[in-house]
Amino acid sequence: MPSQGEPGGTGGTPQPGLILICAMGQPRCVPLPLEPASRSGGSQLELGRGDGLGAMPADRRMSRRHARVAYEGGRFRVTDLGSQNGTFLDGAAVEPEAVSPSARVLRTGDSIFLLAADLRPFQACGVKTQDGRVVGPNLQRALTQIARAARFSSTLHITGESGVGKEGAATAFHAGGPHSTGAFVAVNCATIPEGVAERLLFGAKRGAFSGAVADVEGYVQAADGGTLFLDEIAELDLSVQAKLLRVLETREVAQLGATRSRSVKLQLCSASNKELRVEVGAGRFREDLYFRLSRPEVELPPLRHRLEEIPWLIDQELRLVSAESRAHASLVEACLLRFWPGNVRELLTEVRAAGHEALGGVGEGEPESCGTVEARHLATTAGMAFVAEPPADHPAICAAGVTPSRELIEKALKRTGGNVSGTSRLLGLHRTQLRRLLDRLGIDPARFAPGAPDQTE
To answer: Which of the four, 250, 346, 358, 447, has the lowest number of CB atoms within 10 Å?
Structure first.
């Protein structure tokens, strides 16, 4: 699966460029190809405040000539053109130029772009909402494979990290198959209590065990005519795996305690964040069941390979909290830079919690936060550690309730040339909070302006 900035798997010559993914709190997906630069042999694009009618947003915090982005020899070169509010590449101020083969996120004013070595996947399908799910090019590629499997196969195995949306992918498999009008039965095998998986999956006859006072239908029978989704299938006991294999091979199921089998017609979708081949080698998963389930197999890409979806996911979640809520560019940027080990599930949980906290704090002496969900509130109240491994010389956003030290403030002021707005963004503080700290510590921002004497005191 191509990662952000890698070619999207299409033939032909890659088209390097930028994708505008957020402008003034609104999610976007606007591919911006870099134009050939005759002198260097590479390509480049100049960014600046637009009128809102073309591709460039009418972002008041962008300068008319804000930054230039060039692509040469597999590396992006970003140059700040003397902008008033600065240019930031992967969260670090561009002073005045930065070169990187792996940078991903560019912020100018309140607009955010992704750097891509190949724009063609974004030009082909962009970002869309599909059955309530946000879908970018990498996820669309996986969903296309799932749709094909639904038409031609009665089984599908989905792999991917925790929180990438495997159940949503399973529902897509169900919806695209011949049993879409039947039931979709989802079972998390990891949550089944020990010793009861067999009767929960296959049902039980009256008297089959102590306390069985009536016939009980299992999940397999409930999914007859539809789709059974077994999430975390690697957690099933080996004895249950053997009976599941028999169901798949014979299309019959026998309840616990029954003397006769019942025919069933269903599709089976399985999922696991464990590598089943490894589980087979360790003796924890039946090899014959693995061969029966493992093809076709589709891997869902992690969120860090679907960065273009993040502004849309944030916007969706915040609007559930409040219809008027929107995300500040600083929040979107911070979310784009975080690793998100829990993927979409973790992102939505943190944004939801932060949104509630932010709305509860509106009106507490910071009028600029009214009408928007301000990034500082969202970032700190949810306890989000946004930059997993910031460069050693780059001030990271401060954790909740932590006051930055004099050294950290002065380092940030030096990086921004004494710009209070830029420094407050680097530190994750509101400008008013930063000014109070500067007054208390006796720090004069003008001392860090370009050309000012004694910047190291």
So the answer is: 250
Q: Would you give the DSSP letter of residue 390?
A: -
CATH superfamily of this structure's domain 137-299 = P-loop containing nucleotide triphosphate hydrolases (3.40.50.300)
174: its two tokens: 């169900």
Do the beta carbons of residue 109 and residue 66 sit within 8 Å? yes
Residue the block writes with tokens 């973790």? 346
Placement of tokens 């017609």 in the chain: 265
> Is residue 188 scored above 80 in pLDDT?
yes
Nearest-angstrom CA–CA distance, 301 and 303 = 7
Q: Tens digits of per-residue pLDDT, 203-213?
A: 876 655 655 55
Helix (H) or strand (E) holding 166: helix 166-175
- What digits encode the pLDDT tens for the residues 21-42? 999 889 999 999 998 866 656 6
Q: Cβ of 40: how many Cβ atoms within 10 Å? A: 13
Report the mean per-residue pLDDT for the chain: 83
Phi, psi of 331 (to 5 degrees): -65, -45
Tell me the three state secondary structure of residue 439: helix
Q: pTM, whole model, 2 decimals?
A: 0.75
The domain at 17-124 falls in which architecture? Sandwich (2.60)
Residues 6+ apart with CB under 8 A from 172: 131, 143, 146, 147, 150
Please say whether the beta carbons of 317 and 382 come within 8 A: no
